[in-house]
Amino acid sequence: MADELVHYSVANGVATITLDSPHNRNALSAQLRHELSAGLDRAREDSEVRVVVLDHTGPVFCAGMDLKEARGSGAQDQGVNEFPRILEQIWTSPKPVVAKLAGPARAGGIGMVAAADIAVAGTEATFAFTEVRIGVVPAIISITVLPRLNPRAAHELFLTGDTFDAERAVRIGLINSAVPADGLDAEVERYVRALAHGGPNALATTKELLSGGDAEGMRARFTEMTGLSAKMFAGEEAQEGITAFAQKRRPSWVPDV
């Protein structure tokens, strides 16, 4: 039996869901996706839970999709059908979700950060929408990311794939707060305490208000973006990009300079 990659615990009304796959930088492997989705369902149904904290072990919050699983396989195997549900679970959770980042997030990892109600990162955390650099597009995560980001920053960062730091992530609306590593736990606790003061029904209803109550519209957009993502992952360009990434070389479309 494979070791558990996502841990679930509850204390004082707070459900902590911890990604624990440091060997691949908490990449969204099939096993991790399955366990994460189950943990989010469990928190949603647990009447004792008031707030959910999405945490991680190791130096990286989440590196995005597991490219080892994506390499050389068909589009149906890329997790593009499972991952939208995870983002929707976070976004529509009636219990507020706080993302806690003690390290970098990339691609799909940023999608989860954006889906959370509150996101706090250590100042050493970095971010990048790396999809274009391996020949795919940030289609699915755009549904949670674009409502958060300054539009000019979104164009720059989606198109270049450049890395940016936690302080800029605050300025462009991706996260709420960036603090030194030794203050991260206290900052998360500050938000958790503030959220716990809200009535459970009031919080759930306020979340619906903030999202525009458009759950069906979100599902339709996820369906559309899932098709686009699957098409891109299955294409020759993406397979070349994924192979180049694995081989630590430039993909064929990058000119020699």
UniProtKB/TrEMBL annotation:
**Family membership noted in the UniProt record:** Belongs to the enoyl-CoA hydratase/isomerase family.
Q: Can you name the source organism?
A: Amycolatopsis cihanbeyliensis
Q: Which PANTHER family match?
A: ENOYL-COA HYDRATASE, POLYKETIDE BIOSYNTHESIS ENOYL-COA HYDRATASE PKSH-RELATED
The domain of life is Bacteria
Matching InterPro entries, A to Z? ClpP/crotonase-like_dom_sf (IPR029045), Enoyl-CoA_hydra/iso (IPR001753), Enoyl-CoA_hydra_C (IPR014748), Enoyl-CoA_Hydratase/Isomerase (IPR051683)
Q: Which residues form a coiled coil?
A: none
Q: From the UniProt record, which GO molecular function terms apply?
A: catalytic activity
Q: What is this protein called?
A: Methylglutaconyl-CoA hydratase
